[in-house]
Amino acid sequence: MPTITLSLKELVEMTREKDIERLIETITQFKGEVKNIEDDEITIELEPDRPDILSIEGLSRAIRGYLELEVGYPKILRRKIENSNLRVKVANAKTRPYIACALIRNIRLSDEAVKSLMRMQEALHITLGRNRSKVAIGIHNYDAIKPPIIYTEVKSTEKMIPLEMPLEMTLKEVLEKHPKGKQFKHLIKDRCPVYIDEEGIFSFPPIINGERTRVTRETRNLFVELTGTDPEAINQTLNILVCNLLDRGGKLESVKIEYEDRIEETPKLKSKRKIVRVGEVERIIGVKLTVDEMETLLKRMLYGIGRKCEGEIEVIIPPFRVDVMHLVDIIEDVAIAYGYSNLKPELPNIVTAGKPSLVEIIERKIRQALIGLGFQEIITFTLTNRKLQTENMNISGIELVEIENPITEELNAYRRWITPHLIRFLSQNKHVGYPQKIFEIGYTATPTDEKIITQRNTALAIASSKTTFTEIKEIYEALMEELGIEAEIERTEHPSLISGRAAKIMVKGRILGILGEIHPSILNTFEMEVPITIMEITHCQPKYPNEKGSIMTIRSGVEAEWLKGIKENDKK
Predict the structure, then answer these.
(1) Contact, 363 vs 370, CB < 8 A?
(2) What is the DSSP letter of 340?
(3) Which pLDDT does position 572 carry in this prediction?
(4) Distance of alpha carbon 340 from alpha carbon 325, whole angstroms
(5) In 3D, which of 15, 2, 6 has the Cα closest to residue 49?
(6) Quick check: 50 and 30 in contact, CB under 8 A?
(7) What is the pTM of this model?
(8) SS3 of residue 11 by DSSP
């Protein structure tokens, strides 16, 4: 979970709450935990579901509302946004094709405020930005920029003076020598995305800003720029950023973005509206409230109130609340404002005896065995895309459970197997030393003519200059011995694996999975410089709620449905 470190003195000033104990208690209402208070620093662990409070500005704003010092729709969002007349031209940007920008004028920054700005930036990078892969943020001293500004892609031989470096460097040198370049080099492909003004490159997203536009306590005007692969996430992140900077006393001005086929104006500080019915709140949290009582609670959580009628309220959602996607998110805030300690627990009218499920018992053994063998567990998304599951793995001719109206092409299907996600994970962590040994236990789904078959798979991968078929075979033998399973392997061919170094795992004539060495063409696709060996098995097939029969496990009849119907990709 995200952990933020703030100045306690500044937190007290911005919240206007001098009672530290009451301040800590309020932080817990937002699912936060104070980990440490030392000198003037307070360290807080927060849930990632509220990215707007991962900064001192956002957290202070939420606390002021909860303590009824400033309630309702924030005043900073009622001001008209002026147009700055600044235009940013986007030309030939393919790696990170979407951007959003804003100007903040007449802001006053202390040294602590500058430090807070950098912390806020990194917190948003990690959460909404998915460690800069989805969104990257740059904040600059606008007075050091000489428009016109162009966002484009250039060769790695172009030069800039990166932040915290005294000398001019080529972009290639930045990637190889600068600490941020080494850390995020994997996000750059053939060409380098940059922001350019009359004097040259001043930003190299998602890597580093230029030293020329460094923000200091003397800075009065800020140019905020974001780049990435998801336009919605970019605009949501910008909304949070500019609202925080408005809390610092800045004046917001919009910027026009000139794409090759359209013109957009950012930021888009648009509020959303939802109807909340009193009866629905009572059904979910078990508390009877009047419309007026619910209005008071909603205002404490900084919602605006639109029209009211008997039994329902129109709720206006501030643009920095990017986490509010469903009615239950608003109802959860009503419960927070009401106070979880004020909710009266009720015992259910059933008698049960809890015990671990069969699935949990098996997976606990698998997890313990692999950790004992030196593997680290990871968790990736179950949503995926066809390219990752098939084309990138030299596979064709298989069906996936696809989403009918996907929001993004990156997440348009449910994964059929986990191995591609492990390889992508390894490709994103090439800056970490080798060997790397990882595993994941999770759901997969395979469509058939009759139904969608959901299974639980275990996948593991080793990336190392020395890993071979022999090593992954030894891991397989150790795991099967730990599980008490009499399994055997038979030579097989699989388009993702090297011919002659691939095997299928059999138990009583049933195929449970595969193991072997990843094909060199796939290593090239993921830009991996060391061999990878993998193993993936199906260890369980859970039942649907109304499905007859017992759960099938590695011991009792389960088969790897995801391996059926695989064909080799002709473009291999």
Answers:
(1) no
(2) G
(3) 43
(4) 22
(5) 2
(6) yes
(7) 0.69
(8) helix
Q: Is 389 left (phi over 0), alpha (psi -120 to 50) or beta?
A: alpha
Position 389 scores a pLDDT of 93
Residues of the chain with pLDDT under 50: 570-572
Lookup: tokens for 141 = 């001293």
pLDDT tens-place string over residues 133-161:
999 999 999 999 999 999 999 999 999 99
Both tokens of residue 349?
Answer: 């009218």
Asked if 456 and 542 touch (Cβ cutoff 8 Å), the reply is yes
Q: What is the mean pLDDT of the chain?
A: 92
DSSP structure string for 30-51: TT-EEEEEETTEEEEE--TT-G
- Report DSSP state, residue 546: T
Q: CA 552, CA 554: separation in Å to the nearest integer? A: 7
CB 470 within 8 A of CB 492: no
Write down how long the chain is. 572
Q: Output the pLDDT for position 570.
A: 46
Mark residue 363 as left, alpha or beta (left: phi above 0; alpha: psi -120 to 50; beta: remaining): alpha
Paired sense of beta strands 510-518 and 208-209, if any: unpaired
Beta pairing, strands 251-258 & 82-91? parallel
469 alpha-carbon distance from chain centroid: 34
Domains in the chain, please, with CATH? 1-69 (3.30.56.10), 73-266 (3.50.40.10), 272-341 (3.30.56.10), 358-568 (3.30.930.10)
Q: What pLDDT is stored for residue 569 in this prediction?
A: 57
Provide the pairing of β-strand 510-518 with 497-507: antiparallel
What gap in Å lies between CA 494 and CA 398, rounded to an integer?
Answer: 13
For residues 335 and 235, what is the distance between their CA atoms, to the nearest angstrom?
28
- % of the chain beyond a pLDDT of 70: 99
Residue 64: closest CA among 116, 12, 5, 6: 12
